[in-house]
Write a structure and sequence with these properties.
heterodimer; A: about 290 residues; alpha/beta; TIM Barrel; eight-stranded parallel beta barrel; 11 helices; 8 strands; globular; B: about 220 residues; Rossmann fold; 2 domains; 9 helices; about 30% helix; elongated
Chain lengths: ~290, ~220
């Protein structure tokens, strides 16, 4: 079953995020992907995450696809104008990659080369709209595409912890109208915040997968509280990570993630695990969460 | 107002390194308000360049440095000083620079960087006196949609120029994560639309900008 078929079938979805390195190595991701394949429905590949130049999302997606895995191509609007975005959508389709997650993308000022030109010719709503038009055989300018037309399973993101939340919800509704079939959220650590969000997002009747970021240590949690918009790690998780001896940190992180999944999974359609370098521990997270 | 900032003295000297005789030009409009190229700055620069071993042959302070015909007329009165100089150092925006490029055969050196188009927004008291603050408000996009955005420009106020709502990078105090001392443009737009009871405008899909309206260099005409 493809990711799209699983969405339609109402299956509880599990996705794992892979972040390519600043280099050409892909094999570790393929190996980890293969080890998780029976329990994971899709592997997101980030697109120059944190605005840091790295191996491209499409390249690793192709490698995963060739290895028989189900990739989800992340596409940000930061680095490509509308011609390049649409061309990459066609390229993905030519390799049989139909899952696409549309994101705005971090600004280059948050990355490691501040002098880079921010593009943002399209925003996510416009990108989703263009992808849907291509399925109908037209590019964004209304020019005809040659058959066969591409087919996509389009996703988007939302930040449940945003305050105020209403602007996020307004944009989410626009993304649904533009064609988003599933949502993956920013990292969630507070059950109440997520519940409040879900109650308001239910009206859009679109599958939402809750974002789980593995905590590596207390410092990372504090950093996210300071610098990552809409993310708040409660003090008790920070304390647990701080109190855990170094050799116990992975286990504590897995315990926190699985507890969160346990509390959140009943409210939504799936979990999206963002291991940020701890891809090798994803299997244990799924074990602990009973997924 | 075209907002400028003076280049560092070090950079100006480096650009003027091959030259001895310098003619200066400023502007009584924007560059005077920005304190980058008014009477005071031209005198300061004259003193600095003289102390640095240059010879300042004279200076021009046009009413508006970006109006070519009157600047051309005004420059005639200083023709000898211009002819005597090897280079013209401009303390004004890029427009003033290129007006002088057009009407003289001299090497034109910018003494300022041209930053943005924005109004003088407020005047604040600082320990050294009053300080004017300028804020970027218009990106000269060529297809104004202010009426759809509560009168606030998303091209300019959003660091990413997004047209359909905020990204996920708004901090909890409503700031933009790209630059912590600026408010998120989309929170400003949202608050304004909410205040005037027009959130429906934010819910409407905004198409991507038509860049064919900005094929450079643009020209315009106005009947006199």
């Amino acid at each position: 079953m493809t990711f799209k078929e699983k969405i339609k079938a109402g299956k509880f979805l599990v996705t794992v995020e892979f972040g390519p390195e600043k280099g050409t190595e892909t094999q570790p991701f393929i190996d980890i992907g293969a080890s998780l394949a029976s329990r994971v429905d899709g592997f997101n590949v980030t697109d120059l995450q944190s605005a840091v130049m790295r191996l491209g999302s499409l390249a690793l997606c192709i490698k995963l696809k060739e290895a028989g895995l189900e990739p989800i191509l992340q596409m940000t609007c930061r680095d490509r104008n509308r011609l390049a975005l649409q061309s990459d959508l066609l390229s993905a389709a030519a390799f049989g990659i139909e899952n696409v997650l549309a994101l705005t993308g971090d600004h280059p000022m948050l990355g490691d080369d501040h002098a880079a030109k921010p593009v943002f010719d399209y925003d996510t709503v416009q990108l989703l709209d263009a992808a849907r038009k291509m399925e109908q055989g037209q590019d964004a300018a209304g020019n005809k595409l040659a058959e066969p037309f591409p087919h996509f399973c389009l996703g988007a993101v939302v930040n449940p912890g945003a305050d105020p939340l209403e602007p996020q919800l307004i944009k989410m509704e626009k993304k649904v109208a533009a064609g988003a079939e599933f949502f993956q959220t920013q990292a969630v650590y507070e059950v109440d915040t997520f519940e409040k969000f879900i109650r308001q997002a239910e009206q859009f009747q679109v599958p939402i997968m809750v974002g789980i970021v593995l905590l590596k240590n207390a410092g990372m949690a504090k950093y996210m509280n300071e610098h990552v918009s809409g993310v708040h790690v409660p003090d008790n998780y920070i304390k647990r990570m701080a109190d855990a001896p170094k050799e116990q940190r992975v286990a504590e992180s897995i315990a926190i993630a699985s507890e969160l999944i346990g509390k959140l999974k009943g409210m939504c359609r799936g979990v999206h695990i963002m291991p940020i370098g701890w891809e090798r521990h994803c299997g244990k997270v799924l074990d602990a969460a009973g997924l | 107002m075209v907002v400028t900032v003076q280049k560092s003295r070090e950079e100006i000297l480096k650009k003027l390194e091959p030259f001895k005789k310098v003619f200066l030009s400023g502007c009584q409009s924007c560059a005077t308000t920005c304190r980058t190229g008014g009477e005071r700055e031209l005198k300061d620069m004259t003193q600095f360049l003289t102390e640095s071993g240059k010879e300042v042959t004279g200076y021009l302070l046009p009413e508006k440095g970006c109006l070519l015909p009157p600047v051309k007329k005004e420059l005639r009165a200083s023709q000898k000083a211009v002819d005597d100089a090897e280079v013209i150092l401009l303390l004004c925006c890029g427009l003033g620079n290129q007006v002088l490029t057009e009407i003289t055969k001299k090497v034109v050196v910018p003494g300022c960087d041209t930053l943005f188009l924005g109004p003088e927004w407020k005047t604040e008291i600082s320990p050294t006196g009053l300080v004017n603050t300028f804020e970027e408000k218009c990106s000269l996009c060529g297809e104004c949609i202010l009426d759809l955005m509560g009168g606030l420009c998303p091209h300019t106020l959003c660091a990413k120029g997004l047209l359909n709502g905020p990204c996920g990078g708004t901090t909890k105090d409503g700031k933009c994560e790209v630059n912590g001392d600026r408010l998120c443009g989309w929170i400003l737009i949202y608050n304004r639309l909410k205040e005037i009871g027009r959130l429906d405008l934010m819910k409407a899909n905004q198409p991507a900008k038509d860049w064919s309206k900005k094929i450079k260099p643009l020209r315009a005409k106005a009947a006199v």
